[in-house]
């Protein structure tokens, strides 16, 4: 971290700042120029509040030269993290997989049928919401425990590990047999939830918040990892912009950006990113070629009658076609 001091900063205050920083374990490198003095801080500044330093009377500006996230940072962990689900399915470090299934688990017939179809098309994990974060309190809220029971049934039928969203930290005991726990966009900064998920040892699929920067997203991953759970998969699902033609705006550049910043696997959800079934295939292909480590795609047996997100859900036949094309372009993926 570099602290630029104001011209003619009061020496006593400079000494105070310097001894305060030293007391926190930092080494300080002073560079005194004719008109400007610069303090270079050496040490782990991730716990330092940059705004407190900026607010000091003698400080002109402060600049971080190191990112505030450590565990998620590629600088401290050069190799790609490979997230392993039950030692069966791997994501990251060259392993690419598709997670597919309905937005919401609705009935046993629905989830088992969709699970069989997506498995036959090449998906290696089954998704399905049991606790649904809906904008309207009058919209379908999910089947809750029953939804998880049905997912486990579909897992038994197909062998596909299951991915489902947690909305409340108090529900954690219900997720005991869930293979990958999803944190949805709306909970990306639910820090108490993230801290609890840091205490368990199972993969977490962390979706990007509706209006969060990549750095904020990585800081959320850091919350989970700081607790000791290193099995985090990042999922780009589109962000809010001024554009209304699509449900969200897919930030595809986030994939190669994250590849440099972090060792964690990055997947893309073209369903929530676009909101329309006909946009899923082009964005799934683009994400694959951009170097994503996987995709999450919503598939429903009867999209017009889906209880949530029907407009963006693919039929099993359409998913079949998308999966084939995705596997066909995989060899051209940027790494
Ligand atoms: C979902 O995956 O069903 C979901 C609600 O996604 P998001 O949190 O990205 O909106
Ligand atoms: Mn959905």
Strand order of the largest sheet: 7-8-9-10-11-12-13-14
CA distance, first residue to last residue: 31 Å
Order of helical and strand elements: EHEEHEEEEHEHEEHEHEHEHHEH
Global Rg: 23 Å
How many individual helices?
Answer: 10
Annotated CATH architecture of the largest domain: Alpha-Beta Barrel
Going by CATH, what is the homologous superfamily of the largest domain? Aldolase class I
Q: SS-based structural class?
A: alpha/beta
Mean pLDDT: 96
- What ligands does this structure carry? phosphoenolpyruvate, manganese (II) ion
> Which class of the largest domain in CATH terms?
Alpha Beta
Low-confidence stretches: none
Q: Largest sheet, if any?
A: 8 strands, parallel, barrel
Shape designation:
elongated
**Number of distinct beta strands:** 14
Question: How many independent structural domains?
Answer: 2
CATH fold-level label of the largest domain: TIM Barrel
What fraction of residues sit in β-strands?
15-25%
Helix content: 25-40%
């Amino acid at each position: 971290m570099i602290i630029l001091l104001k011209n003619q900063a009061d020496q006593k205050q400079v000494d105070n700042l310097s001894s305060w920083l030293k007391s926190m374990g930092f080494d300080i490198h002073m560079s005194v120029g004719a008109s400007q003095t610069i303090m270079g801080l050496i040490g782990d500044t991730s716990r330092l509040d940059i705004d407190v330093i900026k607010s000091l009377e003698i400080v002109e500006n402060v600049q971080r030269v190191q990112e505030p996230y450590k565990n998620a940072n590629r600088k401290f962990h050069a190799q790609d993290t490979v997230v392993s689900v039950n030692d069966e399915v791997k994501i990251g470090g060259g392993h690419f997989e598709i997670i597919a299934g309905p937005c919401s688990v609705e009935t046993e017939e629905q989830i088992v049928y969709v699970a069989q179809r997506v498995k036959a098309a090449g998906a290696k994990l089954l998704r399905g919401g049991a606790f649904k974060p809906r904008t309207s309190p009058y919209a379908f809220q999910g089947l809750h425990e029953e939804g998880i029971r049905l997912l486990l049934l579909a897992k038994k039928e197909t062998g596909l590990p299951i991915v489902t969203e947690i909305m409340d930290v108090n529900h954690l005991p219900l997720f005991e047999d869930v293979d990958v726990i999803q944190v949805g966009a709306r909970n990306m900064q639910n820090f108490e939830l993230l801290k609890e998920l840091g205490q368990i040892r199972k993969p977490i699929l962390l979706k990007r918040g509706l209006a969060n920067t990549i750095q904020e997203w990585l800081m959320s991953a850091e919350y989970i990892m700081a607790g000791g759970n290193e099995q985090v998969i990042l999922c780009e699902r589109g962000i809010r912009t001024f554009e209304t033609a699509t449900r969200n705006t897919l930030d595809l550049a986030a994939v190669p950006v994250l590849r440099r910043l972090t060792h964690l696997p990055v997947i893309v959800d073209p369903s929530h990113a676009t909101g329309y079934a006909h946009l899923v295939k082009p964005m799934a292909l683009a994400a694959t070629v951009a170097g994503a480590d996987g995709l999450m795609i919503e598939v429903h047996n009867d999209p017009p009658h889906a209880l949530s997100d029907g407009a963006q859900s693919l039929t099993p036949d359409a998913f079949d076609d998308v999966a084939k094309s995705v596997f066909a372009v995989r060899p051209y993926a940027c790494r």
